[in-house]
Amino acid sequence: MDELSKDYDGKITIVKVNVDENANTPAKFGIRGIPTLLLFKNGTVMGTKVGAASKSQLAAFIDSHL
Fold it and tell me: One short Pfam family name for this protein (predicted)?
């Protein structure tokens, strides 16, 4: 995610949330597995990806929602 943050600088904001420290977050967004990537636009979830993925897989997922 750190590399993707650099690649998409100025296009998207990447935020990491520790679900152990933010116990309400998983229930709020229906998160059942970790890691989970949620893409938001104007506060609305536009896409969800659950499970480990390569940098290229994550980039393709992000690009499909830009």
Answer: Thioredoxin
Confidence of residue 14 (pLDDT cuts 50, 70, 90): very high
Q: Which residues contact 19 (CB under 8 A, 6 or more apart)?
A: 25, 26, 31, 34
Contacts of 15 (CB under 8 A, 6+ apart): none
Cβ–Cβ contacts within 10 Å for residue 12, how many?
Answer: 16
Q: Tell me the C-alpha distance between 59 and 7, whole Å.
A: 9
Domains and CATH numbers, the chain: 2-63 (3.40.30.10)
Residue 54 · residue 62 · CB < 8 Å? no
Q: Whole-number mean pLDDT of the chain? A: 95
